[in-house]
Design goal:
This protein is an alpha/beta fold. The chain has twelve helices and 16 strands. The strands form four sheets. The protein has an eight-stranded mixed β-sheet with strand order 11-10-12-13-9-14-15-16, with helices on both faces. A four-stranded antiparallel β-sheet has the order 1-2-6-5, with helices on one face. Helix 2 (about 25-40) crosses helix 4 (about 80-90) and helix 8 runs parallel beside helix 10 (about 295-310).
């Protein structure tokens, strides 16, 4: 009994000591932020400094709200976020102890050796910073990073033509509603989630609306992205090379024109208002391969411009976001974008009209979803994608 009591006291002491070593004081972080502002020259045109308006705690972090000085260029902070993150992490790089470590300790004669191992094993924990501007500068400081992976499950299936593009740091699902946002641009470096996201959306739409979903799948990676879906009854067109894709797009445009005329000539603004339940989704994986096919690019722009009324929704995906690959006329008609990590701020600006994608961490599925406002998300990963159309229920 004595050994048990002593062990409990010792473990409680270790937990308390570690909390004091690793807990973050909002007051200390406030002073750090102010010091970083001064040292980085983040002041107003007349030398005014940031003034803390208020701070408040939330789960896993603290929000600091600052009054911006007159004439302050907020881009100074947005483009140098890493300066603030590095400064806030100077004393919090190593955690000596985590509550979950208690579960690994065995109450036996080796307890002291176990505790020593835990205390001498360095574990990196990095704070992350998120900015927002609404007349004030809002800085959210998170004590730990976003989860690096979220596994998909059937509870993530929604209704109608809505799909989950990802989850925020707080676990809030971010939804793309095709009947509202219509089209979607997806971009990012290879291996970071573009094709997985497209498969996730195709699978979700087939399961959610098996009768009313119609698909055209243009897979310019030789079929690696959409081959498993080509025999699904929802798939009306399937193409694997640029020439075949161009011919497919011509057929899609003809059918879209017929639907557009039917809707508009009857006085409706779109298929939803007309009571038409069917939606036709045009997925293009690696659209850069069509850049040398001007007629194909013109049709894509036409779908982006008029498809919303006819019920033809475009999902345009590329790992090479340039102004040649994503023409300005196409972009202007596609408000929603989902962007994973890119190598330069120039590429990020092509997709999002702002920098940020170049600063995303080296984590597959971590992206920025922009639909008027930008939100960092972690896209769910499907461990087992649909491998057969027979798996779809048509109740």
């Amino acid at each position: 009994m004595f050994f048990s009591i002593a062990s409990s006291i010792l473990m409680a002491g270790v937990a308390g000591y570690s909390y004091l070593q690793t807990s973050s004081s909002p007051i200390n972080d406030t002073e750090k932020i102010k010091t970083i502002f001064r040292n980085s020259g983040w002041i107003g045109a007349n030398g005014e400094t940031m003034r803390l308006h208020r701070k408040s705690k939330f789960k896993n972090g603290t929000e600091y709200v600052f009054q911006l000085p007159l004439g302050f260029d907020r881009n100074k902070i947005e483009s140098n976020k890493q300066i603030l993150e590095d400064g806030l992490n100077t004393r919090h790089k190593y955690l000596l102890f985590q509550p979950s470590d208690l579960l690994t300790i065995k109450l036996d004669k080796t307890i002291l050796r176990q505790i020593k191992t835990i205390l001498t094993t360095k574990k990196i924990s990095k704070k992350e910073v998120v900015f927002d501007f609404d007349g004030m500068l809002r800085i959210k400081v998170y004590n730990s990073p976003m989860p690096p992976k979220i596994e998909w499950n059937e509870s993530m299936l929604l209704k109608n033509f809505k799909v989950i593009v990802g989850y925020t740091r707080e676990g809030k699902p971010i939804v793309h509603d095709f009947d509202k946002a219509k089209h979607l641009i997806i971009a990012g470096a290879t291996g970071y989630g573009k094709s997985v996201a497209m498969k996730l959306f195709v699978t979700s739409l087939i399961h959610q609306e098996p009768i009313n979903t119609k698909l055209s799948l243009i897979d310019l990676k030789g079929g690696s992205a959409f081959h498993r879906y080509k025999d699904c009854k929802q798939v009306e067109y399937y193409a694997r090379d640029p020439k075949e894709a161009e011919q497919t797009l011509k057929k899609i445009q003809e059918r879209m024109n017929s639907s557009f005329k039917k809707v508009v000539d009857n006085g409706y603004k779109d298929v939803k208002e007309a009571g038409i339940k069917e939606r036709h989704f045009v997925f293009i994986d690696e659209a850069a391969d069509l850049a040398d096919y001007p007629q194909a690019m013109e049709i894509i722009t036409d779908i982006a411009r008029r498809g919303r009324s006819a019920g033809y929704y475009l999902v345009f995906c590329t790992q090479y976001p340039t102004i040649e690959v994503i023409p300005s006329q196409t972009k202007r008609n596609i408000i929603a974008r989902l962007c994973y990590v890119l190598d330069t701020s120039i590429a990020s600006n092509v997709v999002l009209d702002e920098a940020g994608a170049e600063d995303l961490p080296d984590i597959p599925g971590r992206g920025i979803y922009k639909n008027l406002r930008s939100t960092i998300v972690q896209t769910p990963f499907m461990i087992r994608l649909m491998t057969s159309c027979k798996e779809v229920h048509h109740d």
